[in-house]
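Quick question about two entries, pasted in order.
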Amino acid sequence: MNPHPSIEAQDRPARLTVGVVGAGRVGPALAASLQLAGHRPVAVSGVSDASVRRAAELLPGVPLVSPAEVLARADLVLLTVPDDALADLVSGLAETGAVRPGQLLVHTSGRFGTAVLDPATRAGALPLALHPAMTFTGTSVDVQRLAGCPFGVTAPEELRMAAEALVIEMGGEPEWILESARPLYHAALAIGANYLVTLVAQAMELLEKAGVQAPDRMLGPLLGAALDNALRSGDAALTGPVARGDAGTVVAHVAELRQHAPQAVAGYLAMARMTADRALSHGLLKPELAAELLDALAGPAPDGAADSAASSGELSWEERAPSTGPGDADRDHDQPAHEAGTAASDRPARPAGPAQPEDTAPGTAGTGASDDHRGNGPAGPGSAGPAAPDSEAPDPGSHGGDS
């Protein structure tokens, strides 16, 4: 399962005791993968029934304890909680004295680098940010999927080899991400993975309205080919009426959507404009067809549509065309979606929202964090330190991943 069995012993971290704070979909899978590499999971925190089931399946025999107790038992601690809960959790653990000098503290958020771990670093912890760019199911299949999974890695220079070694031991492929680039990196994964799900789901709904009995089977080959082409060729893979300049087809699409799925109009227009922008820039859309297509895309903006072209700092595709049409003020070139077949690395990025636990409730004072079920509480009488939410998955993302 591990694609790097030949990693030299001197490049590997020593065999470590491993703890998980937040038994969502990610933490138990990573701990189980580390167990396969010879490390020893010793403690996990989680409150919800789903967390207990995940821990029992992926980490059988590992006790469920409070977050503070996890840190007391483990040399390497995985903080796998939602993005918005991470900073308060770290601060709470540091303030209560739960952090031990020399302890490896790893978070899996795509959004943050190691700065979010500063309170723990000041207490002597060794900070690592290891974000798996994969969606997680919360089952044993995730451990298998980690083979070859890219990880966004951020760490102090002196810990870089240790961070990359841990990723390789989990079967992953480390990719170094600068601290300052983490939000952009995470936004790119959200565009490529999260919004792809939205596009596919919407396409299936429209096919159902059109009478297609098995939308998934119809879309499968098309989307698979489009994704493969986009990853191989980028914008050169663009096809369809916008890239060809078929204004009449675009007009017909918009008319049908206004009648049968008005909620889809804003997204269609935004994606069509971005597609036209890229097609024109890369020589796929003929300039002489751009003006007519512009007119087709310049219909009345749906309620709530924002004109962000002026704030983007870039010339729109209409402004690059030899002539312009009406409705420029209605153009929105910064939408949270993109053509299903385009390459995520080339897309305009916007910050993605945090991963959400499956069922949140207010957490205890001192952390600001929320649990994935009935609220945070210590695992047993007398336990100290902040409680932590369970994370369902990091945003791609991620997602990508789910991350």
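Here is the second entry:
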Amino acid sequence: MKLHLIFLTLGALFLLGLFADQFGRRTRLPRVTLLLLCGIAVGSSGLNLLPLEAKYWYEFLTIAALTMVAFLLGSSLSLKNLREHGATILAISLSVVIVTIAVLGAGLWAIGIDLGLALLLGAIATATDPAATQDVIHQAKAKGGFPDTLTGIVAIDDAWGVLAFSLILILVGLLNGGESNGGLLDAAWEICGALALGLAIGWPGAYLTGRLAKGEPQQTEALGVVFLCAGLALWLDVSFLIAGMTAGAVIVNFARHHSRAFHEIEHFQWPFMILFFILAGASLDVSALGEVGLIGLGYVVLRILSRIIGGWIGAVIGGAPREQRPGFGIALLPQAGVALGIALIAAEEFPAYAEAILTVTIGATVVFELLGPSGTLLALRKTAAAKSA
């Protein structure tokens, strides 16, 4: 790609992101949705204005942006927050995963979908979009028990989702006459290896960072830890999301000398997020919406229903305040890259289901990426209004 095109593209995308940000502030629309719409407009589904080479930036920006998000989500898992909301976080995150698989699996099977395919789609539906959820919370400047609990849920629910997906892979393999424990072993390595890596980075980071600026880690320290964590996670083939979350949780709990444990990430995170969401929108194939058919419609409706039911059940079990219970499922509607990643794995494992899995997942991702953040914002506002009433 020619050098002048790189600068022109980056400059235009940053200004487009600034427009979306300011428009969101004035209209109170989720800026995540606005950025995705901008991406669709300039991408191949719209005006096709982006240079072809720009698509190669997406993988790097995705990993960089989501590792930063993971660090900030991990910082929500402080001992104070866990003491106050830990039982609720655990109950809701587990309930949403279990109910999503059960409702989608049974519902799709009931309308005539093969049981194996129905279970796989149910497992894919457990994935959320931590970046979108975290940004909506940040945009809304939400404070209190509900956003604190919600942040904790999105910090750990993808780990449950990966584990559940691996178990479903094995179950569907057995249903189709195969035998395999590779999926479970891979999931164990991805999760446990990421936890170990996060601990290995977070433990020394808790004591070594924040020494030069009176308890506030510098941007260079934060960037170094983020990129080191992402690079090692990719090299070791473990989850960079879980590794980043673990490192953030370790630092926030053990860096006693920190006054703002790694919140320097917030200062440079937003430019990465602008590029990430716009390029994510540009990569969405809107034409897939016309191809999903009955199975896609069933997936969308059942996923919304399962999130609401699972969130409410988990909130009751976890002892969440009554006014918060209806909001958790609605707030957990966004779905993005993790779903597409495990859909690709499922398609590779079961070629007979590949076309249906990818078509439904891509089409549903477009729907939930555009509408999901509005659900999160609505839940935050309704809960805040109920609390103040």
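Reply: The longest helix spans residues 354-388. The mean pLDDT is 82. Hope that helps.
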